[in-house]
Amino acid sequence: MKHTSQVEIERKYDVDENALVPTFTSVEGIESVSVDDAVQLEAVYYDTEGLDLLRKRHIVRRREGGGDEGWHIKRPAGEGRTELHWPLDVDGAADSSSDAVPESVLEPVRAIVRDRILTPLARISTRRTATHLVGAGGEAVAEFADDQVTASDVRGGAVRAWREWEVELLPGAPDSEEGRTALLDAIEVAVLAEAATVSSSPAKIARALGHDSLSDALDDAGEQDAVEVQRAVPSARPAPASELTSKSPAADVIVEALRQLVEQLEQLDPQARADQPDSVHQMRSAVRRLRSVLAAYRRLFDDERVSSLRDQLRTLGGVLGTARDAEVRAQLAGDELSELGHRTSDASHRRLVEGSLEEYRQAHAAALRMLSSASYYRLFDELDDFVANPPLSALGEKRTPIKVVAAKVIASELARLRKRAGAAAFAGASGPGGDIDARGDRALHSARKAARRLRFAADAVSKGGTAVLGKRYRHISREAERVQDALGDHRDNALFVEHLLLNSNRAHAAGENTFVYGAMSVRAQNRGSAALNESPKALKRLDRRAESL
Predict the structure, then answer these.
(1) What is the largest CA-CA distance in the chain?
(2) What is the pLDDT of residues 80-116, one digit of tens each?
(3) Contact 340, 515 (CB under 8 A)
(4) Could you tell me which residue ranges the CYTH domain spans (predicted)?
């Protein structure tokens, strides 16, 4: 079942039982207030035995009472938190006596919880009195909640009670981050004037577990044990990304790059499950990037572990690739038919566009089965373990600076690309009409993959949170991408020509006009030849950039 989504921007405050609620009359921009009748909120918070959700700063809860009762997921966002909401009866789960979390609610957090069971973590009862703060335009800009809270730690057995205040922005709040921050700051002045203090935790669940913050709760649940293990093995503990430099040990930099890629894959999982636009493509790209970085820097790690992960990632990428290829065929056919003036009612449109979209739907369903399989969840477990406890090789243990290791890796990857490309593949493989034999096609595809691996190896040390080696590596990445794109465009058009030929034969057998298939085929061949002819120039530019290393 579809969920609704909103960004939650709020601040919380600890307050004494006898504190008086602020009047807010002195807050600039607040013209009036309205106080609602008190409501009773009953919530159950869920997590795995190992608190996987809390470790990722995610919350899953079922709440009764109030205007937004239902199932909620709260997760980090650039500003505030994103809250997903389902009704109480989602998937027929209206029975409050059941502790089972509905499948629809689980889907967005599957990459975090995997096939582990969610059970109640805490039960929180809140008596809430809400005050709406109304701006000059007559629209409420914020809600001030005075909460009397009683919480039961289900697993620990303790019951705790406290009072807290919460200020949450409403749709009438300023539309800029600067304006929203200014409004919250102004409200905070009035709140702190009543002897309140800023809360150390943005969520009630931490206090329900007997701690001042989520970090403290996680430490108490065993996080400290993991830290002690890492302290005992210094080589397996990479430095924080903010501390990495060109002189940092190569293993530290690459492990951090891998950690960020695993995190990206985890974030893309719910988008691909929900079939959001371009999500399958983005997830497939993240898988390829992970495989490439593991391969390029494999000498830093245990070879068997790297090979195992790359094999599993290849399988995942293949399933995602089947869906992505069908999606590309549909997009390309739609654009071509539109440019040639064919209507959506034409048989060619039904065969090429609607047929490819149906193939995509079937392939996406197969991808969903993969994303819900035990093998997929164990892959994530292995990736998590790899970055948390890196299996370093002798080279990785030497802690050689990344600037030394990366230079050798890039040189090796460039030599690999030159070998796979070959002068004939770049300069003479394309004959009249762009025809290439099967051997040449395999060589070009192999060269494309080599260019991609070179690009991602350079990116790992020059972009994002591990950008420690600067513009020379970014230049190499850019030129490698041009080689990759040229060969990729050629391959995409070659595959499209094969697709057109297959469907043209089917259309002919069905008595349909096949002229448009021939016209599209010629256009695709010309595009492919032009792309292939661009690749030698791209490789030469790459060679010139590599000389700077």
Answers:
(1) 87
(2) 999 999 999 998 876 666 789 999 999 999 999 999 9
(3) no
(4) 6-208
Q: Which residues contact 314 (CB under 8 A, 6 or more apart)?
A: 291
Pick the CATH number of 246-400 from 3.90.70.10, 1.40.20.10, 2.60.120.380, 1.10.3730.10: 1.40.20.10
Q: What angle do CA 334, 340, 342 make, to 5 degrees?
A: 65
Sort 532 into a burial class: Cβ within 10 Å, 0-12 / 13-18 / 19+. buried
The SS3 call for residue 222 is helix
Beta pairing partners, 144: 131, 167
**Token pair of 219, please?**
């430490």
Q: SS3 for 161?
A: strand
Q: Are 142 and 170 in contact (CB under 8 A)?
A: yes
Residue 145 three-state SS: strand
CATH of 4-219, one of 2.60.40.3880, 2.40.320.10, 3.40.630.10, 1.10.760.10: 2.40.320.10
Residue type, position 303, single letter: D
Spatial separation of the C-alpha atoms in residues 308 and 294, rounded to whole Å: 11
Closest listed residue to residue 75, CA positions, set 286, 304, 272, 271: 271
Structure-block tokens of residue 260? 């960020």
Crossing angle of helices 515-546 and 303-339, rounded to 10°: 140
pTM: 0.88
Q: Is 271 in contact with 371 (CB distance < 8 Å)? A: no
Task: Report the length, in residues, of the chain.
Answer: 549
| 8 A C-beta contact, residue 454 and residue 482 | no
Q: How far is CA 109 from CA 106, 155, 268, in A?
A: 5, 22, 11
AA letter at 56: K
Q: What is the pLDDT of residues 309-338, one digit of tens each?
A: 999 999 999 999 999 999 999 999 999 999
CA 258 – CA 291 distance, rounded (Å): 10
- Structure tokens, 52: 């996987």
Q: How far apart are alpha carbons 340 and 334 in whole angstroms?
A: 10
Sign of the torsion formed by the C-alpha atoms of 249, 253, 259 and 262: negative
**Which of helix, strand or coil describes residue 62?**
strand
- How large a percentage of the chain has pLDDT more than 70? 91
As a whole number of angstroms, the distance between CA 209 and CA 47 comes to 13
